[in-house]
Specification:
This protein is an alpha+beta fold and 356 residues long. Helix content is 58%, strand content 15%. α1 (10-62) crosses α3 (86-98). The two termini are 34 Å apart.
Length: 356
């Protein structure tokens, strides 16, 4: 049987071409904006580090070197966000001394983000830094992928094998999903702080939509939840983390950390929550409050899983379910409903875009 050709009218073809052209314009503009913001922010951090470094000798002579950085950080964090913490200001000093050449920092061929430079700064070997910086730029690695490549000792393996071309050729297929894009770049907490948008919320993101629904559920439950922060930025061991939701429970008198996981609960999720709870216990815990509590909301393929965690003497442990918290089956049901609604809205939005 002869196949019948489906003809497309000139009007539809023209509309599809127009849609494709406009999309290309939007994506190109986004890329230029992201590139410009990145260059300006990275250069700003470099200059801040240079200023602090240049002032160090004068400060030492004045005998108050231990007080300047904490004081400076306190004022900057209050005015411009957590990206200007004392630890990050010290990173900026290291940045300016590790990369003393200003043109290399803002080179258009590099376009590495601040998170990339944080991963590169600890590397002592200049050739090693150059290798990873070049690879991250050429292959458009995210900062997470760069850290993974450093941890896997890619440079050392390349040097030992003398077969760099083979390894480089394999990179595009090994971690394509981790490549940087303008959308991913603009979610960087350092970028949001730099633009004064550290409370920005990603409306179009599927996972963020589920989190918004769960946030509304906790706040409307009447059980004493007060919102402290969304996407709470934490710095631990030279890495940056964002906790989905942080509440204060008035009745329980303790902080409650809520994290959404798309997939089944795993050991690494428990470890991550332990890091969150220890950070909160160290930096946010007030006298008279009980230790922070963690709630993992896991949305799996077949079922929802709710895990309650708290700090113990030997580390994080499963906690007793407390009065004042929504029942597990209620949380599971709400999570299931929120996930389904978010998936439906997400599908509708993409369908509308696709239909132009």
């Amino acid at each position: 049987m002869a196949t019948r050709k489906i003809s497309v009218s000139p009007a539809i073809a023209a509309a599809q071409t127009l849609l494709g052209d406009v999309r290309d314009l939007i994506e190109a503009a986004r890329l230029r904006v992201a590139s410009t913001i990145n260059s300006e922010m990275t250069l700003l951090y470099w200059h801040i580090g240079q200023h602090i470094h240049d002032c160090e000798s004068e400060v030492r002579q004045a005998g108050c070197s231990d007080k300047v950085l904490p004081s400076l950080a306190g004022h900057l964090v209050q005015g411009y966000g957590g990206s200007f913490s004392e630890k990050n200001l010290w990173r900026m000093v290291q940045f300016s001394t590790t990369f003393p050449d200003e043109p290399l920092v803002i080179s258009p061929t590099r376009q590495l983000s601040w998170a990339h430079f944080i991963a590169l700064i600890p590397l002592k070997d200049a050739l090693q830094r150059e290798y990873y910086a070049s690879m991250a730029s050429i292959e458009r690695w995210s900062a997470r992928t760069l850290r993974s490549r450093i941890d896997s000792r890619l440079y050392e393996r390349t040097v030992l094998s003398f077969d760099a071309d083979t390894l480089v050729a394999q990179e595009p297929t090994q971690r394509a999903i981790e490549r940087m894009s303008p959308a991913l770049f603009m979610r960087d907490p350092y970028i949001l702080d730099f633009l004064g948008l550290h409370d920005a919320w990603q409306e179009g993101d599927l996972q963020a939509a589920v989190i918004r629904e769960m946030e509304a559920f906790f706040l409307k439950s009447g059980m004493g939840f007060s919102l402290v922060a969304r996407q709470r930025h934490m710095q631990m061991d030279d890495q940056d983390f964002q906790l989905d939701l942080l509440f204060y429970h008035r009745r329980l008198r303790r902080l409650v950390a809520v994290e959404l996981k798309v997939g089944e609960f795993a050991a690494e999720d428990k470890d991550r929550m332990e890091h969150y709870l220890r950070w909160l216990d160290r930096h946010e815990h007030e006298p008279g409050e009980d230790a922070p509590l963690g709630i993992m909301l896991c949305s799996g393929n077949s079922s929802e899983q709710i895990e309650l965690l708290e700090l113990g003497r030997g580390g994080v442990q499963m906690a007793e379910y407390l009065p004042g918290l929504p029942a597990r089956h209620v949380l599971a049901q709400r999570l299931r409903e929120a996930t389904r609604r978010a998936q439906w809205h997400w599908a509708q939005c993409h369908l509308e875009v696709g239909q132009g």
